[in-house]
Amino acid sequence: MKEARQIKFKVKTPKNKYESWCGNRVLQRILESRLTEKQARTLYGDPWSLIQNKEIYGMTSVAEEIIFQKNKNIYIFADYDVDGLTSGFILSSFLKDILGYKVETYYPERSEGYGLSPEFANNLNDKNAVVITVDNGITANEAVNILANKCIPTIIIDHHEPAGELPEAVEFCDAHIDKNYGTHLCCAAVTWKVVHKIAELLNWPEDKIRLLDRSYLPYVALGTISDVMPPVLENYAIIALGLEEINEGQSNTLSSLMEQEGIKKMTSKDLAWTIAPELNACSRMGNVKLGKDFFSQEMLNKKTALQKLTKEIIKLNKMRKDITEKAYQEIVSNNDFSATPICFVNVEKHPQGVHGIIAGKVSEAFGKPAVAYSSNGHASCRGEDVKDVLNAYAPTYVEGAYGHSDACGARIIVKKIPQFIKRLNSDIEKKKLKFKHTEPTITLDAELTLQDFNKETREDILDFGFTGQDMPTVGLLDVSVEPIIWATKGGKKHIFLKLGGKNIYAIGWNLWDEYEKLGAPTTMNLSGSLDSGEYAKYCKDVLLTERNTVLTISNWSAA
């Protein structure tokens, strides 16, 4: 990596100050910057009251249409990522396993492209069919039109934004059509609410509906975190309630992953950094069927088969991580992105499923958006407002970008990348484009003291149910450090930092070389998350047990 970046640290100023009620100084400081006291107390005391009983655009009409089509052959076309897997599972298990409808669920491989495809539509010739899309469909105009010409109705359940004219579907449920309510929800949550509405229309009693809601909460929480949904109060409640169900053993599939990974109590961090990547690996590595088969075991609950699938998923994810890390190291070693505001990276030779991860890692490393592209122009893009920036230069340099603002897919004109870079730099210099490489600033939700390194602080934060996007960043400023190296069999050199001369530690995974590049400072600013110290048993120079707490470093700088 040829660019040196100096990270600046600051501490977030609380928006709301209220008297202590949660019993933890650090957690209270975090909550003061995010929620009112009433919101925080409600989330702790009665999270169910925060689940909104409001109409997402088209929710009731879609539920009525699904009931009307109950005698048809229902084809659910889901997306391949975790939100798509969970959405597909929720709808198919409810319609097929609970209501007894005739259902077939299809998850495409990433290589087939995103969303309901014309190929799928052309190949479906069942005259008694109805197609329901989940986590896709709102932009599938061509495929829906093909189905309509065959007199096959399409019902769309999605949470993405339309692209101009809506498809010729018979019904839509998508909050982005009118934006009155629900744009903060992942598609698993939207599907969950549609299922709830169907049960209401079928006159299920309230206690039976509540049991139904609870049974799907683990997957709604997983979808919310994996799709990086906004940190709003209802999503906090969904995650908190979902974690409660998971930790009570209400999900056979997630319990199996917990057992294999040695997770004794699931947290939102576990969902975000362990479970979601493992399940995403299925489609990233071209085996989405493995994810489908895994979730199908929830209803079958055959322990031996489930354990086998769980081990296969974990093994596949390890392969994915190894491939991604090797590609990333090669890219940062052989490229200088100092002369461009966007890092354009040719990832032609790497598996398509890891392109987005590579783009994210490059964007984070260089502090600017990254576009990981293939020779055909297909690209995965990551970075602040990258979708809007790319679309501002369509159609001259970009055919179009689609998806979320900071994480999108795109079609770029590869042969014009050099001219595009020149144009970006020119527009920035002329102030036509407010877009530049800025030095990163780390904002701490709470500044720690060494006294805060205890099991209670760690568990209070992890038990709260923050979203994957909104996990608190805590840290220490101007702390003295003493380095201890910890080399692994794979040749990676991790580092423990002994803090303040006490038996309190921070750990940097594979960061020993970076520490040396910083000049081996003895006083540092550190940020990251609080974790258990159980892995420290592998380092004989560190005096920790599972009950201790360490800071897992995400960013640092010399003080």
Description of the structure:
With 559 residues, this protein is an alpha/beta fold. It has 18 helices and 18 strands. The chain has helices at residues 25-32, 37-45, 59-68, 82-98, 118-123, 141-149, 187-201, 206-226, 233-247, 252-261, 268-284, 288-300, 303-334, 355-366, 386-391, 417-429, 455-463, 512-517; strands at residues 8-11, 73-78, 102-106, 129-134, 154-157, 171-173, 343-346, 370-373, 378-382, 398-403, 407-412, 441-444, 446-447, 474-487, 493-499, 505-508, 523-532, 549-558. It has a five-stranded parallel sheet. Strands 7-8-9-11-10 form a five-stranded mixed sheet. The protein has a five-stranded mixed beta barrel with strand order 14-15-16-18-17. Helix 7 (187-201) runs antiparallel to helix 8. The protein is globular. The model has no long low-confidence stretch (mean pLDDT 90).
How would the blueprint of this fold be written?
Layout: E1 8-11, H1 25-32, H2 37-45, H3 59-68, E2 73-78, H4 82-98, E3 102-106, H5 118-123, E4 129-134, H6 141-149, E5 154-157, E6 171-173, H7 187-201, H8 206-226, H9 233-247, H10 252-261, H11 268-284, H12 288-300, H13 303-334, E7 343-346, H14 355-366, E8 370-373, E9 378-382, H15 386-391, E10 398-403, E11 407-412, H16 417-429, E12 441-444, E13 446-447, H17 455-463, E14 474-487, E15 493-499, E16 505-508, H18 512-517, E17 523-532, E18 549-558
Parallel strand pairs: 1-12, 2-3, 2-4, 4-5, 5-6, 7-8, 13-14, 16-18
Antiparallel strand pairs: 8-9, 9-11, 10-11, 14-15, 14-17, 15-16, 17-18
